[in-house]
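User: My instructor asked us to take a sequence, write out its structure as tokens, and then describe one feature of it. I'm not sure where to start. Here is the sequence I was given:
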Amino acid sequence: MFILFLIALCLYLVSTIFYLLFLAIDKKGIEALGHFSLLSGFIVHFISTCFRYFQAGYTPITNLHESLSFLSLCMAGFFLFLKRSYKISILGSIIVPFLSLVFIWALWLPSDIKPLAPILQSYWLPVHTIFAFIGNSIFFISFFVSILYLSLERGIKRKKFSPISTRFPSLEVLDSINYRCMSYGFPFLTIGIITGSLWAGMAWGSYWSWDPKETWSLITWIVYAILIHNRLTIGWRGRKTAYMMIAGFFSILFTFLGINFLVGGLHSYL
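Assistant: Let's start with the prediction itself. The structure tokens for your sequence are:
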């Protein structure tokens, strides 16, 4: 099974090389090779995750190794999905290297299959974790889109252009992608929080205990809720959306990793 993860990693790394080459050399054939490698890596990664599921007997999102692996899988899948709607192949030079690094981190961590903690032996495990991680992966991608938006906007205002910057999508397209990420990511995040609350009610007798991870999940939800509300009611676009997406990303990052390493709590088993 582990050999499939290694094959997936090799394909992601090959895709990274091709997309970086595509950034330097504007050749359609290079991008096609990067896309094919990424798609192949995603398929092999998905199959290896399924094998781990059948071998372990539970949804493999229960520790940091499995969580990072599933996060990179979701990022690859959502980027492939976005490419069907937008001509954003050049963004692969930013997103694919990052998801490859996340996957490398996952494979570097201990990957032994251990008995599932009693609290995790619930049908809520796949429901809660899958929705939460898909939402997180979407907002991870929106973070890079937002950074790129602010960088390109700054270049336009200063009238400083490079041959590479002109190949990236326009500010309007990047803002549209951010809105698409909001439209998809927020419902997934919301369902993840709701199902987590229902699970907590069954496991601990309380739907909300203000555990650090619960609290920061709520903070993250509020950040994106404010963004969507202001987008729809007062027309927030462009820079304001980008800054809020970045703030949301750091909130997700702290919820996902910071709580485990710095604070602890009821969710520290992840």
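For the description part of your assignment, you could build on this observation: Residues 45 and 118 are 28 Å apart (CA to CA). Try explaining in your own words what that tells you about the chain.
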